[in-house]
Amino acid sequence: METICFQIISFAGDAKSCYMEAIQEAKQKNFEQAGLRIQEGDKSFAQGHHVHAELIRRECSGEPVPVGLVLIHAEDQMMSAEMTKMMAEEWIDWYRNMEGERV
Prior knowledge:
The protein is mainly alpha-helical and 103 residues long.
């Protein structure tokens, strides 16, 4: 179970890092690179989501899934990555608008 949780944490952390890098790229007016960082983050997030969805599937099929602090942390990291993506997209749009580009 710990291995599964740490996979989720790792994928979520990678995604969050990519989303933050996207903001920095947009800040430097590198909007194409910002978009690529968002896509890269989405791939990592999807991998974490896949692992998480497997836990949900197991629980729904009647297999007990122990809930501990590590799983709670993993889910928190997933939510944090999702929020970071939403904020990154807003910041990228804001930087584009500041440059007069269409969003």
